[in-house]
Amino acid sequence: MEKRELLYEGKAKQIFLTDDPDCIIIHYKDDATAYNNVKKAIIEAKGLINNQISAIVFEYLGKNGIPTHFIKQLNERDQLCRRVKIFPLEFVVRNIIAGSMAKRLNIPEGTKPSNTIIDICYKNEELGDPLINNDHAVALGVVTYGELDEIFAIARKVNELLTDLFKKHGITLVDFKMEFGRTSDGQIVLADEISPDTCRFWDSETNEKLDKDRFRRDLGKVREAYEEILHRLTK
Ligand code: TMP
Q1: CA of 173 to the centre of ligand 1 (A)
Q2: Among the atoms of ligand 1, which is closest to the Cα of residue 200?
Q3: pLDDT range class, residue 31, cuts 50, 70, 90
């Protein structure tokens, strides 16, 4: 597979075309941003660690029946994926209240709700990626109700599988963000990455934060936390 020109550069990743029009190469960078680009830093080796974590997670999900964009890890920082058209929506699953939901609704972080919560955010930086609902998403013309039903069903299954996987490694999956896309043959698949950049992971016994909140909140030992997640997944 030949790496061709840069198609897109995001905050933490670059996307390259390949000689196969249905495949892209995702390159994981060390850049970290938070609060809509207000806070920026390089976390040394983050890209390398997230590439491995995301590859392990996507492989596991694929083996368990989740349709994903992931094909294979190519090297320390690159992975080969199916090219998809991304829905400009972020789907956040919350098992425990934390982060923006805790703040917005004044609920103590760590509260366990009786239900599983799925937020939708509209990916639009100018608007600050606002929280929207199903009707807004359909009104925006970026997704249909049928597609949302399919995405929500996959999201719930992913949550069950990942909660189970991380629990086995002594990690509580507090919340996480997913993105979905459509392949050229029309299949809806899970895309983007799943890593400590896009999840909240708490140590099951101590509730120590092992994710990007260490960077967002200046808690220190960011790289060590990411390494700990990889270490536990590969143990
Ligand atoms: P939040 O509490 O800031 O809404 O974040 C919920 C979860 O989703 C958390 O694990 C971080 C992840 N997330 C992203 O990966 N990217 C984003 O742009 C946002 C808003 C959240």
Answers
A1: 13
A2: 10
A3: very high
Beta bridge partners of 69: none
Q: For 98-108, how does the pLDDT look when each residue is reduced to its tens digit (9 = 90+)?
A: 999 999 999 99
| 52, 79 Cβ separation under 8 angstroms | no
The total of other beta-carbon atoms located within 10 Å of residue 213's CB is: 21
Cα distance between residue 168 and residue 170, in whole Å: 6
Residue 181: name the closest of 58, 69, 86 by CA.
Answer: 86
- Chain centre to alpha carbon of residue 97: 17
Q: How far apart are CA 142 and CA 89, in angstroms?
A: 8
Pairing outcome for strands 70-73 and 39-42: unpaired
CA dihedral defined by 225, 227, 232, 233, rounded to 10 degrees?
120
**Ligand 1 atom with minimal separation from the 174 CA:** 10
Chain position carrying tokens 């099951």: 204
